[in-house]
Amino acid sequence: MQEQQNPKERDHRIDWKRWLNYQSIVKQVPFFLFLALLAVLYIYNGHYANKTIRNINRTEKEVKELQYEYTAIKGELISRSKQSELIKAVEPLGLKELIESPVVLSDSSGIKK
Q1: Is residue 39 part of a domain?
Q2: What pTM was computed for the model?
Q3: Torsion of CA 87, 89, 90, 92, to 10 degrees
Q4: In-domain check, residue 18
Q5: CA pair distance 103, 6, nearest whole angstrom
Q6: Region 24-46: what's the mean pLDDT?
Q7: Does pLDDT of 65 surpass 90?
Q8: How far apart are CA 45 and CA 51, in angstroms?
Q9: Lowest mean pLDDT among 16-20, 60-64, 98-102
Q10: Number of folded domains in the chain?
Q11: Quick check: is 11 in a domain?
Q12: Helix 22-80 to helix 83-90 angle, to the nearest 10 degrees?
């Protein structure tokens, strides 16, 4: 049995020698370069994804802040648009609220447009 295993072990050693000689390694260089390129692209893709996620989070934060600002300004505008607030705002200009109804002017020539 020892004699039968020795040729198999010898074939196994020869197989490794065939794979590790200079010519076969040189033949594999393009494949190794391809694998290195894939690794670089994989790393780049991970960094790009992280950068994109950070930008999305920053933009979401800015949108929330702008929504809060919009709500605050809208509430202030509604409160300033109330009739009582408008009267207080235009009083220094000498304007007063009408007490009687406005007069409607009509054309006395009788020509209607």
Answers
A1: yes
A2: 0.54
A3: 120
A4: no
A5: 122
A6: 94
A7: yes
A8: 10
A9: 16-20
A10: 1
A11: no
A12: 80
- Which own/partner contact pairs does 93-100 have at CB distance under 8 Å and 24+ positions apart? none
Token pair recorded at residue 95: 């304007």
Question: Is 17 domain-assigned?
Answer: no
- Tell me the three-class secondary structure of the chain, residue by residue: CHHHHHHHHHHHHHHHHHHCCHHHHHHHHHHHHHHHHHHHHHHHHHHHHHHHHHHHHHHHHHHHHHHHHHHHHHHHHHHHCCHHHHHHHHHHHCCCCCCCCCCCCCCCCCCCC
For the residues 62-77, what does the mean pLDDT come to? 97
Q: Higher model confidence: residue 4 or residue 39?
A: 39
Range of the structural domain that residue 64 is part of: 33-79
Q: Mean pLDDT, to the nearest integer, of 51-59?
A: 98
Tell me the two tokens of residue 55. Answer: 């930008």
